[in-house]
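Journal club side-thread
Mid-discussion, someone asked how the predicted structure for our own chain would compare to the paper's figures. Pasting it here so we can look after the session.
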Amino acid sequence: SRIVYYLMNLHIQRRTIYFARSGPSENEHSYKADADLSEEGRRYAEKLKEFMLFQHKQKNDNLAPDERRLLTIWTSSQKKALGTAIPFMQAGVPIRQQPVLNQLNPGESDGLTPEELKAKFPDEVIKARENPYRHRYPRAESYHDLAVRLESVIMELEREKNDVLIIAHETVLRCLYAYLFDRPAREIPTISIPRSCLIEITPSAYGCKETRMEIN
């Protein structure tokens, strides 16, 4: 795609992109609630900070002084993403809040169980199965809508000189991952981004290389 072309070929300075999911919130299944991190989420945020900073220091220690890069955190404006970034902020790492990184808006399907969805929107459930990338529930976004919204972030990554850790919801990271690895749109809804993993992505002129590391 043209975005991947720009990302891979216009940036003359090497850098690394990291993906991590937001920590668990006090109301994981509600978009509208925009809940704060749970106790488990706060523990996760602290572990992520320790692990990320250790990995980044190790990487920089193996580079020549003029090749070493700072780390910047990009998060959505949702409370669970911001909460996950707080330990980094306390450690002096620059944080950049970007509402465009907010998760896919589920509209009227927000908070519903699979059984409740079938009862309330039987026809929509069938359509979602047939085309999960382009389908949207009433007043919701589709994955296609989200991918279009995120195009500006891809271009900002092109201009970024530092290493970047993006902390966001799985729906967002799926779309960004698909852009970077040139995955077909139909695969986006099923791309796996486990919360237990920090994903390290190294772009080059020949494509991206990834390493998945268990956060421990």
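Post-session note: The radius of gyration is 18 Å.
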